[in-house]
Amino acid sequence: MWFFESVYDQGMSGKVEDFMSKDVISVDANSSIVNLAQNFQGSPVRSYPVFDHGKLVGIISRTDVLRALVS
């Protein structure tokens, strides 16, 4: 927490668009969880936006995929 307080106190600012990823990689809601696990393997990506018929319906993370595979 100290890091955020020190950054805040220094008056650093910026817009989200200055820090966001612009080349978005997404997955379809009907994609295979096993294929998604393979996509995560060896990739620095930690989460993907999930779309269903062009509509954003959620975000899936590495942890979500691991939980799905373990259950």
What does this protein look like?
It is a single chain. This protein is an alpha+beta fold and 71 residues long. The chain has a single domain, classed as CBS-domain (Roll), CATH 3.10.580.10. A three-stranded mixed sheet has the order 1-2-3. A hairpin with a 2-residue loop joins strand 2 and strand 3. The radius of gyration is 16 Å and the shape is globular. 3% of the residues are buried.
How would you classify the quaternary structure?
Answer: single chain
> Fraction of residues in helices?
25-40%
Per CATH, the class reads Alpha Beta
Structural Rg: 16 Å
CATH architecture: Roll
In DSSP terms, counting alpha (H) and pi (I) runs of 4 or more, how many helices? 3
Please indicate the count of domains: 1
Q: What is the overall shape?
A: globular
Which SSEs are present, and which pair or pack?
Blueprint: H1 2-9, E1 27-28, H2 33-40, E2 47-52, E3 55-61, H3 62-70
Parallel strand pairs: 1-2
Antiparallel strand pairs: 2-3
Structure keywords:
71 residues; alpha+beta; CBS-domain; 3-stranded mixed sheet; 3 helices; 35% helix; globular
In short:
The chain has 3 helices and 3 strands. The protein has 71 residues and is an alpha+beta fold.
